[in-house]
Amino acid sequence: xxxSTASGQAPWVGGFDLPFGLxxxxxxxxxxxxxxxxxxxxxxxxxxxxxxxxxxxxxxxRPVGGxxxxxxxxxxxxxxxxxKWVNPPVAYMLHAGVPRLLDAGVDLPGLHPGDPARVxxxxxxxxxxxxxxxxxxxxxxxxxxxxxxxxxARKDLVDALLQxxxxxxxxxxxxxxxxxxxxxxxxxxxxxxxxxxxxxxRAGRSASAAATPPRPSGxxxxxxxxxxxxxxxxxxxxxxxxxxxxxxSAACTP
Length: 254
Fold this sequence. Notes:
Blueprint: E1 12-16, H1 24-30, H2 36-44, H3 48-60, H4 74-77, H5 90-104, E2 106-107, E3 115-122, H6 125-133, H7 148-163, E4 170-173, H8 176-184, H9 189-201, E5 221-224, E6 237-240
Parallel strand pairs: 1-3, 2-3, 4-5
Antiparallel strand pairs: 1-6
Helix pairs in contact: 2-5, 6-9, 7-8
């Protein structure tokens, strides 16, 4: 990988906690472009109320239990349908984030070529969290649901990351002040960002392989939280420098 980008910055691989595409079934039924860059440009030009009404009409015409269309990667990752506009509104996250990545000229493996020194990947923090916690919930945006049980789950999750107990074969290294902040953030945003950091650092895994535990050849490697990533920085597009990159499966494209 180059030692610097065209702007003089160090190269990076970033894991972003938002969907990078829409289900092919949805796209084809709506008659939208199936070419990924053209689809993203078309989607970016729509107003959010139009997106909501379009997706709601699509769902209304489908049977109970199958309202949403899914990408193939949604199942293995346990992620929400990328067309979902509420709880969580990932369709709006796609609308806000992916056009900016396309405009920035970053490399989007499997989707669109760009600057090879700046690589953006779709990350799945929930996949890693479920591996370590099972069905236990560790976060909520609602104050009434920010319970002691979820606090304990965050402590257990951070402890597991520090010990390198995940399939990634990586061990998190962070100052106590940062680990305390990860545990204290009941919304889980900072912890999700850290999970994205670990996913991007473990670049080189395909989206399909992410559902199968690897066979590590040695002890877990250590990954340090970037020094410029402060406990006050929220949202889960946490980027890190990495030597290898993950190639998402083409099944994640529309």
